[in-house]
Amino acid sequence: MQTVVERELEMQLVLSPERSIPVPAKLAYRTEDPFAVHFTFHVNSDAPVNWTFARELIVEGVFRPCGHGDVRIWPTKVNGRSVLCLALSSPDGDALLEAPSSPVAAWLERTLRVVPPGTEHEQLGMDDGLNQLLAPTAGDELWLRDPWRGKDDTPDTGA
Q1: What is the distance between the alpha carbons of residues 97 and 22, in angstroms, rounded to a whole number?
Q2: For strand 71-78 and strand 81-90, is the pairing parallel, antiparallel, or unpaired?
Q3: Residue 129: Cβ-neighbour burial (10 angstroms; 0-12, 13-18, 19+)
C-alpha cells in the first residue's frame, strides 16, 4: 500500500537581497519512492516545475548546509524568522528559494514516521522480488542436479 505525505506552502523566490516573490509549492513524499522527496513549484508558466532529490539531503539541510551541484540546502534566519534555503541549478537557470522552516520540518517529521531512516529499502519489496526471481520452478531440478552423479568415474582400463 502506497502512502503519500504532502504539504502545500508558500515559498519565496529570491530575486535580489531586497526583492522576492511568492511561489506556491507542494512537497510530496511517496512510500513507493522512499529515498526521494518531490517539490512542485507553481510559477507563472504553463506547467509546474518539478524537482526530485534525496530525502536524506533535506533531512540534513534542516540542520546544516549540505549538498553540492544542482541542489544545495541550508538553514538560516531572514528578518528574524527561521527559513530553509534551497539553491537549485539546472541548464534552464538557477533559483534561490526560501521556505519557512517549521512547516518543512513538520512535513519532514511525518515522512520519517511513515518510513524511518534506514528502512527505505523495505518499501521497495526487493527482497520479495528477489525471492520470487530466485525461487526454484518445476523444471529447475534438471539444471540443479549433478549430471555426473551415479556414473562410474574410474578410467576404462580394458583398452
Answers
A1: 9
A2: antiparallel
A3: exposed
Q: What is the mean pLDDT of each run of 10 residues along the chain (159 residues)?
A: 91 94 96 93 88 94 94 94 96 94 96 84 65 66 64 61
Does residue 94 contact residue 88 with C-beta atoms inside 8 Å?
yes
How many Å apart are CA 136 and CA 87, to the nearest integer?
Answer: 50
Predicted confidence at residue 17, as pLDDT, reads 87
End-to-end Cα, the chain, rounded Å:
70
What DSSP line would sit under 70-116, residue for residue?
Answer: TEEEEEEEETTEEEEEEEEEETTEEEEEEEEHHHHHHHHHHHHHHS-
Q: Which three cell numbers stand for residue 100?
A: 519557512
Cα angle vertex 23, ends 17, 29, to 5°?
120
Q: Three cell numbers at 21?
A: 516573490
Question: What is the CA angle 124-144-139, rounded to 5?
Answer: 75
Grid coordinates belonging to 42: 507553481
Give the global pTM: 0.73
Helix or strand or coil: residue 19?
Answer: strand
